[in-house]
Amino acid sequence: MMIDPVAIDRVATDRVATDPVAAARVATPGASMSSYNRTTDRYTKPAIFFHWMIFLLVALAYLAIEIRGPRGSDSRAFWTGVHFWAGTLVLGLAVLRLLWRLWAGAPEELESNRLLAFLGRSAHLALYVFIFAQPLLGMLMVNAGGRPVSLAWTDISFTLVRADAIARPLLKDAHEWLGNVFYWVIGLHALAAIAHHVVFKDRALRRII
Predict the structure, then answer these.
(1) Where are the beta strands (DSSP E) in the chain?
(2) Exposure letters 55-70 (e unless 16+ CB within 10 A, then b)
(3) Partners of 150 in the beta sheet?
């Protein structure tokens, strides 16, 4: 059976013309999946999942600490358990999100203005610091107070450091301070996303949903 190289070339050309993925790979021969993902217009599905799950868990952690009720009450015990669960899951998902970003990359920046691009990168870096540092500070605070971090409704508990009466109030202050600061950082991040969608009318919000 004879193979017509002209016909094969015509099929390949037609595929490139109709398939943007194929076109991208032809434009950058030898590019890996990682480098391709860095130039796509949308975040990958796992990145979108991590983003919104972490957002919901952070919101739940804030809610739990605000409505937990007086010390010694059943309400406080319940919502403290929810807070511990939310913080632990945030930290676990933060690790997975960072690993995924390092492997798969992220879309190109939309900002052409250098100042806005710098502010956007700074905000993202601050949010990454928060989702790692805040749960860790909470866990260390509990351990420094002489208790393990116990996940409610399970037998899971863990201790990262020994009890430390000097470090405990410092960790508590840091945990509360960072939590208060990030009310504003998260709020500004949300306002920036809305501004991109309503004022600038670009794809910043659409590519993460």
Answers:
(1) 149-150, 157-158
(2) bebbebbbebbeebee
(3) 157
| pLDDT tens-digit series, residues 5-51 | 444 455 444 544 445 444 444 444 444 444 334 446 889 999 999 99
Whether residue 55 is found in the same domain as residue 17: no
Which residues have C-beta within 8 Å of that of residue 117, sequence separation ≥ 6?
Answer: 109, 111
Question: Is there a single domain that holds both residue 166 and residue 89?
Answer: yes
The answer to whether residue 152 is domain-embedded is yes
Quick one: 174 exposed, middle or buried, by C-beta within 10 A (0-12, 13-18, 19+)? middle
Same domain assignment for residues 61 and 20: no
Angle value at C-alpha 100, between 94 and 104, nearest 5 degrees: 150
Domain of 115?
A: 43-208
Query: How far apart are alpha carbons 82 and 60 in whole angstroms?
Result: 8
Number of domains in the chain: 2
- Which has the closest alpha carbon to 178: 93, 87, 81? 87
pTM over 0.85: no
Residues 66 and 157 in one domain: yes
